[in-house]
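User: Sequence recovery, please. Input:
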């Protein structure tokens, strides 16, 4: 998979790709991530990429021309499955969206800043808009890093143990059950007996029961999703 990220702050977004699982997936050649500094496509030699909004109002708006030039340059080189715009006024990212996007070959992620981008960009270039939650960040860079991480870890071969992504929270509309590791007793705090029993069908049932309990108490809306789908 190839991800092209268009941003006004390349330095802000690079770090999450330089560590741990995401870095290893890039080193292994499972994913390529390229950063494009929007200022390179500025409309003048002073690096202008934004302007005041028509009709008045606070905040600067990213102009269409630099974005058009940057996206057109990428489209000349390859086709893209999706051109995504990160913005709080969009559908919220969930595991199902991440699953779908993880099978794409090439995607572009455009990050907004200030008051956002000229609406004509959204109307004519963007194929999908994604929010990472009902709160406003100072830019879309961190949101693009979150989206990229959620997608990349699902690409086959990225996680050592293939089953570990399948048992994540949300994969089946349930939060993940509790997990424990050694020691079995610490300062009189005990691991549930069942997990030490070696009875794997019973352990699976316990995990499912715990996942349902946790979901019912913290995110009952997920259980309603499940009911609505079946
Ligand atoms: N840009 C600013 N806030 C955002 C959010 N919540 N999700 C995606 N992009 C954003």
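Assistant: Recovered sequence (230 residues):
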């Amino acid at each position: 998979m190839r991800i092209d990220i268009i941003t006004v702050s390349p330095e802000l977004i690079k770090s999450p790709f330089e560590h741990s699982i995401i870095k290893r997936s890039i080193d292994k050649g499972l994913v390529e991530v390229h950063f494009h500094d929007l200022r390179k496509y500025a409309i003048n030699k002073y690096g202008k990429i934004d302007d005041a909004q028509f009709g008045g109002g606070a905040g600067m708006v990213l102009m269409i021309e630099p974005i058009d030039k940057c996206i057109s340059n990428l489209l000349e080189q390859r086709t893209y499955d999706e051109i995504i715009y990160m913005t709080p006024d969009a559908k919220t990212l969930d595991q199902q969206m991440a699953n779908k996007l993880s099978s794409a070959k090439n995607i572009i992620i455009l990050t907004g800043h200030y008051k956002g981008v000229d609406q004509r960009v959204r109307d004519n270039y963007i194929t999908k808009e994604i929010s990472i939650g009902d709160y406003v960040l100072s830019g879309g860079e961190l949101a693009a890093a979150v989206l990229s991480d959620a997608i990349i870890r699902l690409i086959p071969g990225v996680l050592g143990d293939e089953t570990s992504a399948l048992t994540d929270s949300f994969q089946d509309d349930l939060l993940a059950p509790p997990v424990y590791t050694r020691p079995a007793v610490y300062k009189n705090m005990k691991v549930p007996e069942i997990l030490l029993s070696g009875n794997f069908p019973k352990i699976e049932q316990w995990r499912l029961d715990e996942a349902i309990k946790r979901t019912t108490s913290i995110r009952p809306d997920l259980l309603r999703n499940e009911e609505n789908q079946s």
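The beta strands are 2-7, 32-37, 50-52, 60-62, 82-92, 106-111, 128-131, 185-186, 189-190.
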